[in-house]
Design brief:
There is one protein chain. The protein is mainly α. Helix 1 (2-28) packs across helix 4. Helices cover 75% and strands 0% of the residues. GO terms for molecular function: ferrous iron transmembrane transporter activity. It is a multi-pass membrane protein. The chain crosses the membrane at residues 6-26, 38-58, 70-88, 108-125, 145-166, 178-198, 243-262.
């Protein structure tokens, strides 16, 4: 639930910021009559994202055990790829995403209402589909279906509340620091999802080593305790992981975390020629 809450918070705040940029641009330029087109695009994107998540769940339920394990493994690796691409993309685009969105919306206004709906739809659908895949991958292995739904709902609701407060300037958040910390935590979540994907492949017989354990600390960290559950939810910690699971967790988590936290190079301005 903790990891899924983080996914809902991070992805939800990105969606909220994108929508608030579009709404604020229309309000400040006196084009409030176009707001209904923006909300229409957002609603369609949200409906498709929810339907996609339901389709993933329904499709997996009809598979055999081996097929389901393979399907969940593929979904896990796709989710890891999405997380990796998303956090680095946001770090690179955070400073100019507002100007880019306003430019697209300005062009769309000249083309008509359908174009405005399309801009809002395209701005939201990518994050929505990412959230659906991440939710499905992170929810695998949960003891029930209520806690994952509760976690993502609380995350999205918190993101909407924060987005609204930011929009009305009732609260100020260092967004650069927020996305840095949540991005680092998501790297650990993604490492856990990758580990879970490897375990699925081992259970399906596609990879060897299902019984080759890296360590077993079940006595020191009983799986039913709250702290074991917290670790499992955040980084997919299991008291008795296989060697291959452990290797994949470290092989992905450590290098990606270092690259993400490594200070970005600031471009050096070219010297101004003397007059």
């Amino acid at each position: 639930m903790t990891a899924i809450f983080l996914i809902g918070l991070r992805e939800g705040l990105e969606i909220t910021l994108v929508v608030s940029i579009l709404v604020a641009f229309l309000v400040k330029t006196g084009r409030t009559h176009l707001l209904r087109h923006v909300w229409a695009g957002v609603a369609v994107a949200a409906a498709i994202s929810i339907g996609f998540a339901a389709l993933l769940q329904a499709g997996a339920a009809r598979l055999t055990f081996t097929q389901q394990e393979l399907f969940e493994a593929i979904a896990s690796f796709v989710a890891v790829a999405f997380v990796t691409w998303m956090i680095f993309w946001m770090r690179r685009m955070a400073r100019r995403i507002g100007a880019e969105l306003r430019g697209r919306l300005e062009e769309a206004i000249t083309l008509g209402p359908v174009a405005v709906v399309s801009v809002a739809f395209l701005a939201v659908i990518r994050e929505g589909l990412e959230t659906s895949i991440l939710f499905y991958a992170a929810a695998q292995g949960a003891s029930d279906s209520v806690r994952p739904l509760l976690g993502v709902s609380l995350g999205l609701a918190t993101a909407v509340a924060l987005g609204w407060l930011l929009y009305v300037s009732a609260v100020r958040i260092n967004l650069s620091r927020f996305f840095t910390w949540t991005g680092a935590l998501l790297v650990l979540v993604a490492a856990g999802i990758a580990k879970y994907g490897v375990h699925d492949l081992q259970e399906a017989g596609a990879l060897p080593g299902l019984n080759d354990l890296a360590f077993d600390v079940s006595g020191a960290v009983p799986p039913e305790t709250w702290y074991a559950e917290l670790l499992r939810g955040m980084v997919n910690f299991t008291p008795a992981p296989t060697v291959l699971e452990t290797v994949v967790w470290f092989a992905y988590g450590i290098p990606v975390l270092v690259l993400f936290l490594w200070p970005a190079r600031t471009p050096v301005p070219s010297p101004t020629p003397a007059s």
